[in-house]
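=== Given protein ===
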Amino acid sequence: MSEQELQALRVRIDNLDERILELISDRARCAEEVARVKMKELKEGESPVFYRPEREAQVLKRVMERNRGPLGNEEMARLFREIMSSCLALENPLKVAYLGPEGTFSQAAAMKHFGHAVISVPMAAIDEVFREVAAGAVNFGVVPVENSTEGAINHTLDSFLEHDMVICGEVELRIHHHLLVGETTKTDKITRIYSHAQSLAQCRKWLDAHYPNVERVAVSSNADAAKRVKSEWNSAAIAGDMAANLYGLTKLAEKIEDRPDNSTRFLIIGSQEVPPTGDDKTSIIVSMRNKPGALHELLVPFHNNGIDLTRIETRPSRSGKWTYVFFIDFVGHHRDPLIKDALEKLAQEAVALKVLGSYPKAVL
């Protein structure tokens, strides 16, 4: 390609950049106008709702459906996610709590779902995320609920039993674990490896093969593990890219998770109910009477109405010893006629039934 052809392409790119800049600015001005209209229409005592999960999910799906390349659908959706995040911050910056400290996969999930323009607030425990949302100190919380390798996150399930929260969305995050060391680490003398218990379990086979005699120490988070390694010469940490970059650690080994498809699903918790989008999921908690056929009675309404169950978990009930509650996820919105009918029939047999929320399926 000649220098003249290159120069012509650069001029074209510059012109396109100017148009993109102008269009993004126009979109931002529209967002400011939306905020003004919402504030004008508020009735006395009402609070404005700036973030609409169903609206954002629909926009991102439409972007992916209309994308013609060469950028992939997810990459294009991520670009639009950041534009939407910045525009929303002009209306009202969202505060989002997550399981901290900084550099955890929960923070990465929050950034993936809300974009980088939100105010992210680290919490020391999952239960604290729930409490911050319940108190109104933050708009939303991000909590892990299940991992494709290790299954359900019981602390999250138990927190739903203790707090009155609404599930507003979900996000799936591909989990890559790395063995990280600091500047002073003597890599041939590592005697201790820190990480969250879930991450240690997800890398069990790799650790057995490469560090069978090294102590494995479970800590509150992967980011906490990375922070500890900074000041110790004989330890390493298992954590992700965000923690490695944040704490200036080096990757001694990359992608050490035992399963190549290792992923974690996170839930977005808040206080607002989400209208249907046409591509939704619903989560419920059910407590059944302890009698023969109880599980069958629970499942029959879903089977008869052709409702696709995607997950069933059990946890000990708070009401008595050897009694349990069921956490159930299924496809559809609780306002859908068939689902509404199934829930009504289930309520007749259940001791207690609570809809945790209906929300858009994860787009990214």
